[in-house]
Write a structure and sequence with these properties.
The chain has two domains: 129 residues, 3-Layer(aba) Sandwich (Rossmann fold); 83 residues, Winged helix-like DNA-binding domain superfamily/Winged helix DNA-binding domain (Arc Repressor Mutant, subunit A, Orthogonal Bundle), CATH 1.10.10. The chain is built from ten helices and six strands; from the N terminus they run βαβαβαβαβαβααααα. A six-stranded parallel beta sheet has the order 2-1-3-4-5-6, with helices on both faces. α1 links the parallel β1 and β2. It comes from Nonomuraea marmarensis. This is Response regulator. Keywords: DNA-binding, Phosphoprotein, Transcription, Transcription regulation.
Length: 219
Amino acid sequence: MRIVIAEDDPLLREGLALLLRAESLDVVATADTADKALEVIDEHKPDVAILDVRMPPTHTDEGIRAAVEARRRRPDLAVLVLSAYVEQTFATELLTGGVSGLGYLLKERVGRVEQFLDALHRVASGGTAIDPEVVAQLFTRSRQDTRLERLSPREREVLTLMAEGLGNSAIAERLFVTDGAVHKHIRSIFAKLDLSPADQVDRRVAAVLHYLENARVRG
């Protein structure tokens, strides 16, 4: 796995590089600005780009803008965005363009090495990894949506775990239920959110984006 790291904090940037190299992962370049990140992504063509949300010169949304632009240039690029705290507008802006190969984690998650590496590998494999705290806050802000109110408590739990990027088997393990039960809950979620019987993956993405976008509008 070839990785580019874009982070303006030198300690975190080098710490991430050391951690990933210790796991036999290939960190091909690092950058301390969003512009430099795009340059090295174009040059090295990594499999994954890890970007901080807030980078110079304004320390607002440069990292998110770079992530969106990098994906525009290379739709197959996996992107893992790191943020110091939950910023729902940035999360939904990144994810609205499609969730395959995308992750949004709080920086504190990096210290939980196994969880961080699991998220990285999931994103690199084309999956999704959204920090549980991001999901929890966005879901709380979405509760006024009339369609979301149709969901049972268990269906809310399933949708929350779907938003974190977990597959059916992982959700079943987390909730101590069978795969069949999870499948039944997901079908019910699709019905209650008025998602037509189309491709299963597309409806799964639509269900997650429905409440993420609703959280952005209401936040």
